Amino acid sequence: MTKNIELAEVFTNIAKILKIQNENIFKIRAYEKIAETLENMPMEIETIYKTGKLDEIPGVGPAIAQKIGELLETGKLEYYEKLKEAIPTGVLELLNVPDVGPRKAKLFYEELGIDTVEKLEAAALQHQLQSLPGMGKKAEENILRGLELYKKREQRRPLGIALLAAEGIVAELKPLAEVAQISIAGSLRRRKDTIGDIDILITSLKPENIMEKFVNLPQAKEVLAEGMTKSTILTYQDIQVDLRVVPPDSFGAALLYFTGSQAHNIHLREMAVKQRLKINEYGVFQSKDDKKIAGENEQKIYEILGLRYIEPELREDRGEIEAALNNRLPVLVEVDDIKGDFHIHTNYSDGFNTIEEIVVAASKRGYQYIAITDHSQSLHIAGGLDEERLLEQIKRIEQINQSLEGITILKGIEVDIKSDGTLDIPDAILKRLDIVIAAIHSGFKQERKQLTERLRKAMENPYVDIIAHPTGRIIGYREAYDIDVQEIIQIAAQTNTALEINASPERMDLSDIYVKSAREHGVLLAIGSDAHQISALDHMAYGLAIARRGWLEKEHLLNTLSFDKLQARLKKK
DNA sequence: GCCGTTTTCGGCCCGACTGTTTTCAGTCG
User: Fold this and answer.
1) Residue A154 confidence (pLDDT)
2) Closest nt to A268 (CA→C1')?
3) Which ranges constitute the DSSP H helices of A40-191?
4) Which residue is nearest to nucleotide B19 (CA to C1')?
5) Most confident among A119-123, A153-157, A292-296 (mean pLDDT)
6) Can you say how many angstroms the Cα of residue A533 is from the centroid of all Cα atoms in its chain?
7) CA of A208 and C1' of B23: distance in angstroms?
8) Residue with nearest Cα to nucleotide B25 C1'
9) Which residues sit opposite A234 in a β-bridge?
């Protein structure tokens, strides 16, 4: 795990403990902010520390700079150790139970010695909570329900899963006569790679029927809350869905607010305050007389603040507001810009479809080219191709290509990078391909240095065009392997190797912050669907989401090149 | 604890809902 994430966790926990201790909320926010900054930073904090530039990071002052230094130098933090003596880490876990916040956690710990979720449940079942000050029967019941939700609550879902679920619900609600406008909001609208819950926004003057329909949806397993403006259900997939209804003239303000991110919203509201304005989910208001001056559309709200419209994918407070202010927002790549797919498997290895079936499907999607990239021999389990079968496939593709019009199949391979960094198909064969993508599929547990060197060696190979799924993470199943992504980006720039945005919903690799960093280092990105069947060609949309979240314009993406220009950009074979 | 196109001290985003309350605290997004 990278140091950034480790440090972020320490600062998050400090914030939680301080909350329980009822410290100054702004001090707490300072710790929360640095934790978030660390999580969102593509650079290693250690690198910045070594160059003595910690204080250039927004939100880092003398106190936090000292703490980062101490953590990096000693691996420990005296201040944090002291705090943990007062509030054990187990108590912090209580905060993850819905309806338990810092005040109740403190109450339960101090009055009943509750320092684990298990103890909390036992106490609730024995009705020990309802007699505590400020508690009551209802409150205790709510905690029990919170515990059920806590146990059910899955990890964050891949974007692909959540998006399908949300689109299903929108399709049910949209036809209702009372619905004026409907939109997906929240992190789903921002197309974040993983989704906690689904937010849907509707405008209407008559919400009753809409709410009625919503809580009785076939997808709804359980109703968690039901009100006039806000209801929450749990689906059979255990995904929480929030529906909010506002009047039509607040659509823009509500959409802005419910889309977030929270950091983006706070930044906008701070700007508004300086202009003697107030923004809430109903509109933009003048401070002097509370007069509403905007609300019906998002664009107008940005305009009033002196900003260009900011696409949802950019709203993470990662510099997009400053860019909008200076008219320097990227012109994000769009779906129509995509001319082809660089990562597709067939039934030559572990895919389901034939080359012919895939090319027909790709053609329907308007692609100019696709790369057939089956696994190579080391991946026995996936029926990887040895030299002989690869040569056979090359021949086959050349045959098929002769009969095609408007689309070309690129002869390719997803070649395995062996543990010593060599490839398991010799250069003499790679040379005969149009495109080579290389990937690590084994030896994930190697040391950081060794893994990074492995990738370096692969990128230095004169025939390797793209590194597939560069960090190897699988969402909810496997952590990224321990590579120095920043160094990989630099090597990619030096060797003119593209990095893949693997669009498979459980991979989504590279992730947005590294994509943005790659862009800044002049590295080209290449989206690959990693499709193993025709329907998965549509995963391209998820790859595009990452590209847009990584600030990519058309020119940063290999997939936007016409077939002719693409050939000129690939390494010479 | 951080920060500065009114400030190096005094600010720091905004509101809904719920439950236990006689006016508000806690939680959530």
Assistant:
1) 63
2) B13
3) 45-50, 62-74, 78-86, 89-94, 102-112, 117-125, 137-152, 159-173, 186-189
4) A139
5) A119-123
6) 24
7) 31
8) A134
9) A222, A240
Q: What is the pTM of this model?
A: 0.90
CB A566 within 8 A of CB A409: no
d(CA A542, C1' B15) / Å: 33
Among the listed residues A539, A550, A482, A493, the one whose alpha carbon sits nearest the alpha carbon of residue A516: A550
Helix or strand holding residue A123 (H, E)? helix A117-125
pLDDT tens digits along A107-121: 999 999 999 999 999
- Supply the DSSP symbol for A532: S
Distance CA A48, CA A320 (A): 22
Rounded (10°) CA dihedral A518, A521, A523, A529: 10
Q: Could you tell me which of A461, A517, A460, A442 has the C-alpha nearest to residue A484?
A: A517
CA of A568 to C1' of B11 (A): 57
Cis bond leading into A261, ω under 30°?
Answer: yes
Q: Provide the CA A206 to C1' B7 distance, Å, integer.
A: 48
Q: Which residue is nearest to nucleotide B3 (CA to C1')?
A: A59
CA of A305 to C1' of B11 (A): 21
Strand B nucleotides where any atom sits below 7 Å of a protein CB: 1-3, 6, 11-21, 25-29
Asked if residue A60 has pLDDT above 90, the reply is yes
Selected residue with higher pLDDT from A534 and A478:
A534
Between CA A315 and C1' B7 the distance (Å) reads 29
One-letter amino acid for residue A414 of the chain: E
Q: Which helix (H) or strand (E) holds A566?
A: helix A563-569
* Nucleotide closest to A59 measured between CA and C1': B2
Among residues A502, A499, A430, the alpha carbon closest in space to that of A158 is found at A502
